Amino acid sequence: MTQIAAGRPAIQPAAEEPRSTHSSVRRRSLTAYGLLAPSLFGVIVFLGIPVILVVVFSFLKWNLLTAPTFVGLTNYLDVFQHEGAGHALLVTFYYFLLNIPVQTALALGMALLMNRRGRFTALIRVLCVLPYLATPVAMGVVWQWIFAPQTGVVNTLLHFVGVSGPDWLNSPGWSMPVVAFANIWQFVGYNMLFFLAGLQAIPPMLYEASAIDGASTVQRFFRVTLPLLRPTMLFVLVTGAIGSFQVFDSVYVMTNGGPGTSTTVMNMLIYQNGFIGFRIGAASALSVILFAVILVVTLIQFRYFNRRTVYELV
Amino acid sequence: MTTLTKAPAARLARTTTATPPVTRGVRTFLYVIVLLAIAAIFITPYLFSVMAAFKPLSEIQADRAWDLPSHPTFDNFVTIFTQYKFGTFLLNTAGVTIIITIGQVVFSLLGAYAFARIQFPGREAIFWGYLSMLMVPNVVTMIPLYVMMSKVGLTDTYWALFLPYVFGTPYTIFLMRQYIQSIPSEVIEAARLDGCSELGVLRRVVVPMSRPIIMTATIIAVIFSWNNFLWPLISTSSNDLQVLSVGVANFNSNFTSQWNLVLAGSLVALIPMVILFVLFQKHIVNSVNLSGANR
């Protein structure tokens, strides 16, 4: 490394690079590839090759112990017919729908509320971000306790007002909303920060101009704030959706996919097939399907949000 | 409280001169109440679990969660550290987090500098290759990674825990490249003219000028590796190699309703991140802005 790095000629203005000598170009390339080597190795071995392998594996019947056999598209049919992939996709969409609209709306609402100066507001803003760092597994344990049927905080509170609360995480109707709630709690403050940054980038003169034109607060929100937050909205929705479709940790701890299969999301099904049943082919096929779904949802969001004009501001 | 609320109150006074002072006072009061309620939602789960972790099981079952422990005890922590291997879990997690963080920050920085500041054949193609990998969700590579690791005999070793993440991520490299590109080229050219090698430029110019993005990458890596769960869960099986997230999950399923131990265990995983947050909250908030603005 030192040898490569030391040999660089001193004078090398960027504009004259095409004219530089052969050996200096070679030396520069060597330096560059030397610097890139570790990450290139990592990206190829731990990302690139696995992406190819997951597609290859999805055509195999393989339990890691006996030799794999090529079965064509059988796994893709099998996971729908026997492993409940269709149901898992619906459950994953349900989680996404419970999670993302509420989380995004709350994050935007909180950002609007807290978009002002003052130390008190700043302190509260910071506290809202704290859950972003919480280990989902550990927090899942805490939520499990808070939503416990008899001794849990939620049901104790409900008991006070004369309501007997359900066994939240063991009820097919409530388990998924509770898991979604845990996720919203964790990430709403984090997403609020993006909206705050977006709000602060809106020039105040636009609000002044619309106020002079007689726009009400509501009109200003829908005609000025919301259109100008479109890039932020896209970012928050896309990253939120990608995360939602891969949810695993909190589901694993809080419900383990149950009761029944009411919270068996795609990632749970992949885990069960791959690491409990050791059906590598089926688990790979499920991974490819999930990848495709995530890509399609991301593309739809991009198309929707780029469809209407985004105001260009310098 | 009064001193804290002064600022918003003063602001309101300036902007809403037309409204009578009483309305203004009520409004400020409501604003403060709403904000405190929001903050409470985010803090109380932590508070409840902290209090429960210092209560014996009988008290957890008999008391309400918001009752202070009547006889605070460290027994739960003593139990999980002496009779179960939470000490090992904690060390494993800390070790893996440190290795992954250093690796990701250093290797990403090297790669990002090459992409941002050195002309070399194949640069655009490789960079697009990295960008395309940004689209790949973690779960997609999980099965093949496991198969690869088990074929080379690395599953259930310490190596498995950090190897896939230690070489830098396309995302961090992308963030750093964007940042390094914003460093004025005159500064870098001046250093080169003064006879600095590329590594010298990197060390003496780029690193000092890229502190915010290095901080961001560090925070992203620490949070990721501390909280990482699915990969450690599948890639290790022996008790001695468990990280905290896996340890807590296993503990939870083995000791259902022993809330005193389970909550003490989860607290061991949660508290270091709270400390990190208290120490670096300004950087964490900034890092969110940096990582959002650059995408």
UniProtKB/TrEMBL annotation, chain A:
Subcellular location: Cell membrane
Subcellular location, principal: membrane
Membrane topology: Multi-pass membrane protein
SUPFAM superfamilies tied to this protein: MetI-like (SSF161098)
Residue stretches making up the ABC transmembrane type-1 domain: 89-301
Residue intervals passing through the bilayer: 35-60, 93-114, 126-146, 184-207, 228-248, 276-300
Region (Disordered): 1-23
InterPro entries: ABC_transporter_permease, MetI-like, MetI-like_sf
CDD domains xrefs: TM_PBP2
UniProt keywords, alphabetically: Cell membrane, Membrane, Transmembrane, Transmembrane helix, Transport
Family of this protein: Belongs to the binding-protein-dependent transport system permease family.
This protein's name: Sugar ABC transporter, permease protein
Species this protein is from: Frondihabitans sucicola
Taxonomic classification: Bacteria, Bacillati, Actinomycetota, Actinomycetes, Micrococcales
UniProtKB/TrEMBL annotation, chain B:
Spans traversing the lipid bilayer: 29-48, 89-115, 127-146, 158-176, 213-234, 259-280
Main location per the UniProt record: membrane
Ranges for domain ABC transmembrane type-1: 90-280
Annotated localization: Cell membrane
PROSITE patterns hit by this protein: ABC_TM1
SUPFAM superfamilies assigned to the protein according to its UniProt record, in alphabetical order: MetI-like
Keyword field contains Nucleotide-binding: no
Keywords, in A-Z order: Cell membrane, Membrane, Transmembrane, Transmembrane helix, Transport
Topology of the protein relative to the lipid bilayer: Multi-pass membrane protein
Ribosomal protein keyword on record: no
Pfam families for this protein: BPD_transp_1
Family listed: Belongs to the binding-protein-dependent transport system permease family.
Protein name: Sugar ABC transporter, permease protein
Organism: Frondihabitans sucicola
